Amino acid sequence: MKALTACTKAELAACKQEYEAEYQDFKAQNLKLDMSRGKPAPEQLDLSMPMMDVLTSKDLLQTENGFDCRNYGLIDGIPEAKRMFADILGVSDKEIIICGNSSLNVMFDTVAAAYTHGILGNTPWCQQKDVKFLCPVPGYDRHFSICEWFGIEMINVPLKEDGPDMDLVEKLVSADSSIKGIWCVPQYANPTGCCYSDQVVRRFANLKPKAPDFRIFWDNAYCIHHLVENPPQVLNLMDACKEAGNPNLPYIFASTSKVSFPGSGISMIAGSEENMSDLKKTMSIRTIGYDKINQLRHVRFFHDAAGLRAHMEKHRLIIRPKFEAVINKLNADIRPLGIADWTEPKGGYFISFNSMPGCAKRIVQLCKEAGVTLTGAGATYPYGKDPEDRNIRIAPTYPSVAELTKAMELFCICVKLASVEKLLAE
Ligand code: PMP
């Protein structure tokens, strides 16, 4: 196979005809597949079904210290759940609050609290002139939606293989007091799958923000979601921040959405004791307490951090072949043509695909018209605007390997067709 970029116009025109015919064949197959979000497959959800049987009407729904989970109370979570996730996140029991069914909800509430009431006695963001967030790109669309909702201006920061461009992050946060936060997915970033290096974590911990109410929004959504047997370790930000004398810098988030049941799991926030007690003020207005019975169910099912990790190994065995199917197809069909690149993550839920500039929207549209819905092009950038129109997030977990193989055949044809159209138009 010859690189498309090295073809003459006549060769490109011939390729276009060939790809168009292949595309029409696919259209005729009436595929219907939704790959727009990173959802666990039904077999993954089945792994947690025994959790439905761990609590019965015959059980005492009590915590280890005898607290009745059926009643109000314990706003920061039951002790055994706090311990299990403190262990996972590398913080102390006092530095974590176990919340409700969604970490996104906790992130939203945390921004909302800063917006209406301010962080640790600082002026509420709504009373400050400008409020800005740094957004490593490509990134997670729902982080960006929270900023957009509150009218927080988003500034793109390139996400490199070892984390955000820290030269730029340091320069911006130390110069501008209106920069109040940065969204980070340090382990297996959504969508690139990259992991932050030790050096990047240390540089985060040593930031000297001009704004006293600047926080690192450290969304550790995929901290135990490995695809490889010897996963990379991301340095503990909380420890690094304490070492640097900046214990209040991070807000750390996680959940069991892709461990147990998305939407019916438990979520958590971690950070310094000072930050946690500050946040509890808002939390205690908002709720009398979260779902402790679900927390108990999770602890009785997983037991401890080791139990959680063992469960994640079962997920790994289900989803790893799906990631391989995607990567193998891209390597076979697209690599030789020199028209795109993509990531090969060691964990998480996504593969980030970069087409030739100006082709992503067209590829997603072509796929959709032939029955495969992908995450909208542009979604991985603030305001839905990918400046180069290149990035597409591939979410391989939900479809079966057979469906995925079919979808990837179509995807590759659409990539080839869109690229050839672009090259012919140049
Ligand atoms: N953070 C990231 C980086 C995610 O990818 C997702 C799910 N796609 C979430 C948070 C959502 O988590 P939750 O279900 O706990 O709200």
UniProtKB/TrEMBL annotation:
User: Could you identify this protein by its name?
Assistant: Transcriptional regulator
User: Which InterPro entries does this UniProt record tie to the protein?
Assistant: AspAT_Ic, PyrdxlP-dep_Trfase, PyrdxlP-dep_Trfase_major, PyrdxlP-dep_Trfase_small
Q: What organism does this protein naturally occur in?
A: Ruminococcus champanellensis (strain DSM 18848 / JCM 17042 / KCTC 15320 / 18P13)
Alphabetized SUPFAM superfamilies for the sequence: PLP-dependent transferases
Report the Pfam families cross-referenced here. Asp_aminotransf (PF12897)
A GO term for molecular function: L-aspartate:2-oxoglutarate aminotransferase activity
